[in-house]
């Protein structure tokens, strides 16, 4: 039985670095506040209400979730608007993943998928003008945007997108903002909301 803990030089430095945690708390606080501003943006709330007419008010109430272990790393999520019924989902998810990226996901399933998919497909040319990916996996909750789970929509025809959606039972679009561009993260999240609104109307 080994009783000694043997650390590398990097680990020795890290274990003594208490400042990291105060810096991390400050970063998480700032990004939480940013997501709160997005979720309470009156312009976005009203424009979503104009699209999602006759929906319950709670759908437009922002929800921020956080955790320490999405594939080993901390994260923050803003869901707004959010409808997560078992068979009917409509949500825009703004996502911060420590050490990776900011991302925005647009998820549709059930009745809302049937309602909005034809309009989205009719905007295929508009979709291909931006770097937007479509989820290809059967698990709609994967936020790791890589070639195993997402394909750039510019590489797919309308028919191919429709085939993926039919096979998986949902549509999920995703965009990324590098962490290096954090200064424009607020504008990025607003722009993604406006873009998703545009492709469903």
Entry keywords:
alpha+beta; BirA Bifunctional Protein, domain 2; 41% helix
Question: Can you put this structure into words, describing what you see?
Answer:
There is one protein chain. This protein is an alpha+beta fold. It has one domain (9-199): 2-Layer Sandwich (BirA Bifunctional Protein, domain 2). Helix content is 41%, strand content 26%. The protein has a seven-stranded antiparallel sheet. Strand 2 (73-84) and strand 3 form a beta hairpin. Helix 2 (19-39) packs parallel to helix 7 (185-199) and helix 3 packs parallel to helix 7. The radius of gyration is 19 Å and the shape is globular. 25% of the residues are buried. The mean pLDDT is 95.
What is this structure, in a nutshell?
The protein has one domain: BirA Bifunctional Protein, domain 2 (2-Layer Sandwich), CATH 3.30.930. The chain is built from 7 helices and 7 strands.
SSE diagram, text form:
Layout: H1 9-15, H2 19-39, H3 42-51, E1 63-70, E2 73-84, E3 89-97, E4 101-109, H4 110-122, H5 124-128, E5 133-135, E6 150-152, H6 158-168, E7 170-178, H7 185-199
Antiparallel strand pairs: 1-2, 2-3, 3-4, 4-7, 5-6, 5-7
Helix pairs in contact: 2-7, 3-7
Helix content, binned percent? 40-55%
- Helix tally equals 7
Mean pLDDT: 95
- Second CATH tier, the architecture: 2-Layer Sandwich
| CA-atom Rg in angstroms | 19 Å
Number of domains: 1
Percentage of β-strand residues: 25-35%
Distance between the termini: 65 Å
Give the strand order, joined by hyphens, for the main sheet: 1-2-3-4-7-5-6
How many strands? Answer: 7
Shape: globular
- What kind of sheet is the major sheet? 7 strands, antiparallel
Looking at the structure, the CATH topology is BirA Bifunctional Protein, domain 2
Identify low-pLDDT runs.
none
Q: What is the ordering of alpha helices and beta strands?
A: HHHEEEEHHEEHEH
